[in-house]
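Case study: Ester cyclase.
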Amino acid sequence: MNDAIAETAGVGVLERMLHEGFAAGDTNVVDELCSPDLIEHQFGLAGTGAQAIAKVKRAISEVHAGLPDLTFTIGDWAEQGDTVWVRAEGVGTNTGAFMGPPTGLKVAFTVIDIARIQDGRIVEHWGVPDRFALAMRLGRIQLPR
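Here is what the predicted structure looks like once written out:
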């Protein structure tokens, strides 16, 4: 499905947020791609307007600092009306503080993003990064037995 992403404007907005924002660490992309009235539902980032924008920018900075070589691959996506769903796989090396001190470990994790997009901007967002798998792979918690 990756070939069709460029043809789908809504999916392209989320793809840019992942690649330019979280992977490259560019917090300016938030101002371009998010409505100033953003409604953010993601755990730890929830808020509205300027508060939500600030939290998303902080998250981008923290993720990029902890996983500076992070890359994302869009696996699946769907779009209906103004709502877009994306499943992405992130891979990066933990060389900076993230969920604790650097481990040097290469980790992979899944992110599911759902967003309402209007006029090319995210107006409402639900993000579900697999923090549990990420914490296990970083050695922060033990693998269930």
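For the exam, be able to explain this: The two ends are 35 Å apart (CA to CA).
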